[in-house]
Structures are given as structure tokens and as C-alpha cells.
Amino acid sequence: MFVSARYTCVSLRMPRGYNNPNKEELDRLKCFLICMQTAGRVEDAMLAKSNLNAHFDPVDQILDFHEKQRQAWLKFFSTGEIDGKVIRHEIIESWKRSVRHGLRPDAPKTNVKISHQSIKVIKEKNSELIEASEPVMESLRLAAKDTGFILTLADHNGVVLAVFGDEKALSFAKKNNYVEGCCRTEREVGTNAIGLCLYSKKPVQLSGPEHFNASHHAWTCSSAPVTSPEGELIGAITLSGESNRVHKHTLGMVISAANSISDSLKRKHSIKEKRKADQLIESIFRCISEAIIMVDSKGLILHANHKALHLIGMDIKTLLGQSVSKIFPRNQSLLDAITAGESLNSVEVPIEKNRKRAFLMVKSYVVQDLSGHTGSLLFLTEKKAYLNRVREASGLRAGYCFEDIVGGADSLRRQVELAKTAAASDSRVLITGETGTGKELFAHAIHNASDRKNGPFVAINCAAIPRDLIESEIMGYANGAFTGARQGGQTGKLELADGGTVFLDEISQMPLDVQVKFLRVLQDGTITRLGDTKPIKLDIRVIAATNEDLYEKGVNQGFRQDLYFRLSVVEIQVPSLRDRPGDIERLSTEFLKRNSQKSGRECVQIAPDAMTYLLHYNWPGNIRELENVMEMAELTSHDGAIHAENLP
């Protein structure tokens, strides 16, 4: 057993004239008495008891406090037997670990104190813990003032970082090296509140004989763990006093103090992490060329980069904390999407900037942080820049020039010269002619020869759009204009053509009700989206094309005559292919050359019998039909030439 004959040599001599021994000496003498009695040293035991009776209160009075626990402590260290009814399981296990560490229950001055330089280094490493604990421990110290208690803060290694409290208690603790810099782990001093708290990572309250060392039996200690923001154990806070003052509320007070310190560390960590995140976001935002605003799930603005501030004409201090609804008051769909945690694709948002109305296109993307909090990133683009991007992506560019119009017939050349004259102005043009004569090619050429050549070229086939959708396609529509409408509305084709040319093919198929609205576009240069009341100013040139006689159709009330006159400022009549037979051979050769370049095959020739057939054919489909015939004939030819038999 732990207490054996080897401890009978322990000697406790009282100095002469020492008439006022302290509690530490009393506990040591008491432990010596127990050891002598256990070892059968009756004579030495009687001497120890005599000394106790001479200089202290009777032993019976000293052992009266927590007698059952004390007897269990004596029994364990004398016989190894365990009284589980009196001593808690975690205390017994801690005693066993202390014994395995080679510790003695009667060891004097159990606390090992580290050097001044070492404690300085340790305190620097635990500066955040110390700083966070100071206001909490000060409050606890004031609450425990004049109660005989002392307050202790230790790090995760059990090193005491700070001790303060009642002067008498501090003086008594100092005699046992229970001071700043001492180590209170189980391995160093055996079962104690700090060591057991750090070992179990749970709040602990010990009193009297529950301590391993006899010199600690006069104490009651309540200790609670302090955790880092990541939940790791980083220290313990402890309240210690005379054992006869033990109370469960003391532990509750210590637990509350430890939780307050842990919470303070979390708050400081959160502030620090938020500052880091803000700096990271700021750096990222500066690197992004697009204008970005970050908002939370309620639509409150958290951050914005300089480009966004420039677009909306506000400074960062004014913007932060504002609701999106105040910055963009005329677009409820944007705020609805943000609060619903939904993304939104390119909605038009009007803003007031420098006392002028401007339009932005806003995309909203839902984002989520590691804590599960959602927000949105708003990407802002000036409407004009946005439309340019759409035009580029949609290929809204004219692809042909006047050089691409093949033919030498006088009837064709006259119309080409007229078209060139029209291109030099901004006048509206009406191109007429049969199907397949190349009316769209003329429209492309006019645009590319005009001052608008760097602007968009938007072609709209009025016959290809369903009647019930043509107005929304051409004019665009506002948010919620009709069932199934795209959230945020949609930009119409005419808006896409702003700054360039719109080509209305098959204009005769435009419904009369849409003709009325389009007439207004020609009259005042504005459009009003379907479902909206705000007019939008446009700068567009209009070129229209038809294979019908619009004047005749207007007489029969199939087309508005006032619209016809508005469109036909310059009227170009593209001749049919049968009216320019001299161009058939030239066009046929040109189509074969293009096909050869595409396919990589050698260009075939047209045999005389095939050319005779081509020249005498009526060509109801005009140039488009000729192009198709040449492609088919080339595919079916075998000897490098197209013969009449290869023609359909």
C-alpha cells in the first residue's frame, strides 16, 4: 500500500517556543499521527497525539469536519479500500491516478512553482485569456470580498496565471506555494479542483478530504473550464475558501464566470474574424471589374465596391446599413427575391443619380456563409453597357456590305446607288421586292455603310413571332405584366437596337394594334413596355421590308396608311431574278465558288445545257432558290460539271 513502513521515518519536531502553529503544520502533524497509527508505531503515535493536545484543539474537534469523508480518505490511503458511498467516483479515480503518479498525501508544499521568466512567457501566450477574464474576475472578486475566498485563473496546463482575493486566505495559500506561477495539475499536486477540472473538462467542486494532499483538506475549491471560440479547453477559473464554507451556489457562480469569459472570447474572435472577412471581401471587391453590392437576407447593404458607389452616386458611409428598397425604390421584385433567398436574373432598376433618372440592370445571386446565414450579391451594370453585352452575345451585328450584292443589271445597280444614298442619312427606308430577292442583304449593307455601323443591328421577322407575343417581343414588358412573364420583366427588341438599326422584315404581318404603338415609336422616339406606364427614350433607325404592296393593303385597311408613309421615306425596290437574267450566270458561279470553299472540294463548272436551262427558268424563289439549286446540282454532279440532268 501507499502508506507503508518507509513512511514511519517521517519526523515532525515542534521548534521550541513555537506556540501558535498554523493549519499547514496541523495537517502535517495529523497526517503523521495517522501514519504512525497505521504502521503500529504506538509510541510515536502517542507522542504525536500529545503534541496535538498540547498545542492545538483536540484531535476529535479537528476530525469532526466531514468526518465520514475523512475516514474514507484515511481508509483508502491506509488499506486501499474504497468507500463508494461517501466518496464520489470521479474523486476516487483521481486519487488512484495521483497514486500512480507517485505522489504522497502528506507531502509538504506540494505546488511546484515555475521561474519568473517562464511565467512571463506563459502569460504572453495566454494574453487573450487574461484580457477576457479581467472584467469577469474583478466582478467576482468584488462579490467575494471579505468572505475568505481567493480567485484563481489557470491556463490549460494548470499553471496559475493570476491569484487575488482575501488577504488572510492569500497569505495562507502562499505558504503552500499556491501563488502565480504554480502548477495545479493532478500529476503535480494530486486531486484538486483545478487539476480535476482540466482533466475532466467539466466543472468541479472539492471540499476538505476530497483533496489528495492533507495540506489541502482545509480548503473548498470550485473550478469551471474556460473554452476557446473553437470549443477547446484553454483554462479554468477557480474560487477557493475555508472548507466549512462550501456551498453549491459557489460552483454555480464560478460556472457563470467561466461561461462569461468563454463568451467574451467568442465575441472578440467573431469581431476579429469579421474584420478579416471584411478585409478579404474588400480586397476581392477591388479586384472585380463589375459593380457589386452585398446585402443580408433582409436586404440591408453590408458592402459595396467603388464601381457600385460610382454607378449609384453614393458614398460608402451613406450606403451601408441602408435597405435595397431605399436605394432602388421602384423595383419591389428585387427585394422580394432577396428576402425569399432566390436569385434574380437581370432586372431593370431605375435610380435617381445627380437629380437625373438612370437605369441599371441588376443580377442577384444567393450566397451563404459557413454558419448558414444567407445573403445576396447584386451585380450592377449600366443599362447601355448591358444591352451592348446582350447584342454581342446575340450576334446583333450586320454581316453584309454593298460589295456582297452581286449583279450588274441596271435595275439592280440603280437600287444599290439609292441604298447608298439612304445610308448616308438617317432616314427610314422601306425595301420592297419578292421573296428571296435579297431585301435583308440590302438592309445589312445600308446599316454597315451608315454612321450607325458600330451600333447594333436587330432583325425582327414579324411573321415568325406568334401574334399574342409580338408586342412583348418588340416593345418588351414590365415585371408582372402577364401570367408567365419573366420576373423582373424583359428588354424588347427595339431597346436592344438603341443606338443602331432595327430591321423589320415582313412588316406587313405586324398586327394593327401593334402598328399603332409602333407608330408612336416613329413619332416621338419612345416606347412603353407592356404593363408599364413609363416611356423609354430610344435612338434607333428603322428599316422595313415587305413582299406585299403596303399602299394597296392600306387602302383595304389591312395596314395603316399613316405607318406606311412614315416608313417609306426612302423606298428601295429590289428587282426579281427573272427581271435581271444577265446576273443568273454570275450568281450561279458565285454560289458554286462559295460552296467549294465551304466543302473544300474542287469547284465544278456549269455545262452549256445546264446554263440554258437556268437562263430560261422563271425563278419564283429568286436568288434564294438559285442558291439552293446550285448546292443540290453540285452534290449530284460526277464529272466536275453540272449538266441539265443534275438540275431539279
Automatic annotation (TrEMBL):
This protein's record includes keyword ATP-binding: yes
Pfam families xref list: AAA_lid_14, GAF, PAS, Sigma54_activat
Alphabetized Gene3D superfamilies for the sequence: 1.10.8.60, 3.30.450.40, P-loop containing nucleotide triphosphate hydrolases, PAS domain
InterPro entries noted in UniProt: AAA+_ATPase, AAA_lid_NorR, GAF, GAF-like_dom_sf, P-loop_NTPase, PAS, PAS-like_dom_sf, PAS_fold
GO biological process terms held by the UniProt record: regulation of DNA-templated transcription
Alphabetized UniProt keyword annotations: ATP-binding, DNA-binding, Nucleotide-binding, Transcription, Transcription regulation
SUPFAM superfamilies named among the record's database cross-references: GAF domain-like (SSF55781), P-loop containing nucleoside triphosphate hydrolases (SSF52540), PYP-like sensor domain (PAS domain) (SSF55785)
Entries under PROSITE patterns matching the protein: PAS, SIGMA54_INTERACT_1, SIGMA54_INTERACT_2, SIGMA54_INTERACT_3, SIGMA54_INTERACT_4
Domain of life: Bacteria
Domain Sigma-54 factor interaction, residue spans: 405-635
PAS domain sequence ranges: 277-323
Protein source organism: Sedimenticola selenatireducens
Name the record gives this protein: Sigma-54-dependent Fis family transcriptional regulator
A GO term for molecular function: DNA binding
